Amino acid sequence: MFRKAIMQDLDRITEIYDEILTEQEKGNLSVGWVRNIYPTRKTAEDAISKGHMFVAEENGQIVAAAIINQDQVPEYSAASWNYNAPENEVMVLHTLVVSPRMRGNGYGSKFVDFYENYALKNGCCYLRMDTNEKNLNARKLYKKLGYKEVSIVSCVFNGIDRVRLVCLEKKLHE
């Protein structure tokens, strides 16, 4: 089940961030995040406050979360987008996380499907997202789901230096 996150979800979302960061620190994942820089509890708290954080629940337990809104980060201006989309028709997926304990159960794909349906319901057929060049698992998933890598932007991103930000997009048919 997918729903908007509430403040009572903040601890669990933060736990998922920590689980991923711990797995990265152990060398089991490469997502390009840095503990205490991005993502943080404040990242999730701000998104929940704005009504932009969504969660996936399984048996009453939050297993995945993501920020969905129309906020295109400034770094997107350096990308070579295939579609010259009107801003009001673009939906963006940020910081999709799945608990490492729940990997391999299709939650990432299901969350992207939710995102696409949410975008269409809100009049957006142009989808954009980004990931770190190091995050090969995310890149593989997004490619499988029909997203095209349009640019890699070198930047400081969310306070992390020397990021190579992969910008992806997809156009849905209304």
Radius of gyration: 15 Å
The main sheet orders its strands as 1-2-3-4-5-7-6
Question: Sheet bearing the most strands, described?
Answer: 7 strands, mixed
Q: Helices and strands, in N-to-C order? A: EHHEEEHEHEE
The structural class is alpha+beta
The CATH superfamily bears the name: Gcn5-related N-acetyltransferase (GNAT)
Mean pLDDT score, rounded? 96
Low-confidence runs: none
**Top CATH class:** Alpha Beta
Number of distinct beta strands: 7
Number of helices: 4
Which key phrases capture this entry?
174 residues, alpha+beta, Aminopeptidase, 4 helices, globular
Summarize the structure in short.
The protein has 174 residues and is of the alpha+beta class.
Structural description of this entry:
- The chain is an alpha+beta fold and 174 residues long.
- It has a single domain (2-171), classed as Aminopeptidase, CATH 3.40.630.
- The protein is built from four helices and seven strands.
- The chain has helices spanning 10-25, 41-50, 107-121, 136-144; strands at residues 2-4, 53-58, 61-69, 90-98, 126-132, 148-157, 160-171.
- It starts with a strand and ends with a strand.
- The mean pLDDT is 96.
